[in-house]
Amino acid sequence: RYISKVRELAKHEPEKNKTQWKTMGPTKVAVPSPNDFLQKRPKEPKLAPKKKEQDGKRLLPLLPPRTYHPVIHIKKNFINKNAVAVITGEPKKPRHFCVDTRHGDKYLLEPSGLFPKYIKKKNYGVTPKCVTRRKEEMKREEEEYQASVLEQLKKKAMKALSEEERTNILKALKKKWEEINRAYQCLPVVTDTMYKRMHKEELELELKQLEHDIAAIEKHKTIYIAD
């Protein structure tokens, strides 16, 4: 049979790159020393040892300067002090109470709202400055608006209707409304043809437009008309 020429080389190839004791470990292991036994808290940081006095000399504290004066604590007589404060002080004003039950239950009158303390203020009944300022601003804005309206009216050359013309137009509109309303009331009840329905819708639109014009003229006393 066939035998390869590199057979012997292939047998020794794995042993060539294999490290000694790779899987089983070394044959001899060093025995640990009995001095390296496990101690309590070996991983905690240790403080540096205290330094001894240099050359056996003791470090004395610094002396205070000549201008230093120690604080002398004087005992106070709080009893006499409180007595003098009570004698020389102003007497307390009596507080107003209100009793609302027969058992003597009472409460302070001032915060209850029954004591008239607000009407005794100096500024009682005086209009606040913010309200006065706001009214002045509103009045100024109204004047500016009226001035701008007049200017626009002058530019557009609009003419104001007189009271007599306004009254005549209003009477004419009301008369026209009465005529159309009379015609609307005379319509038949049944609107079975296209002409009847269209005629009824036209009368309703005219009535609505006249009512709108009459309400607008009655609401505004001054009416302007453009040329």
TrEMBL record:
Q: Name one GO molecular function term.
A: calmodulin binding
* Keywords in alphabetical order: Cell projection, Coiled coil, Cytoplasm, Cytoskeleton
Pfam assignment, any one: Enkurin
Residue ranges the record marks as coiled coil: 135-167
Residue ranges of the region described as Disordered: 1-62
UniProt feature, compositional bias: Basic and acidic residues: 1-18, 38-58
The record places domain Enkurin at: 133-225
Q: Which GO terms describe its cellular component?
A: acrosomal vesicle; axonemal microtubule
The places in or outside the cell where this protein is found are:
Cell projection, Cilium; Cytoplasm, Cytoskeleton
Q: Does the keyword Protein transport apply?
A: no
Q: Which InterPro entries match?
A: Enkurin_dom, Enkurin_domain-protein
The protein's name in its UniProt record: ENKUR protein
Q: What is the lineage of its organism?
A: Eukaryota, Metazoa, Chordata, Craniata, Vertebrata
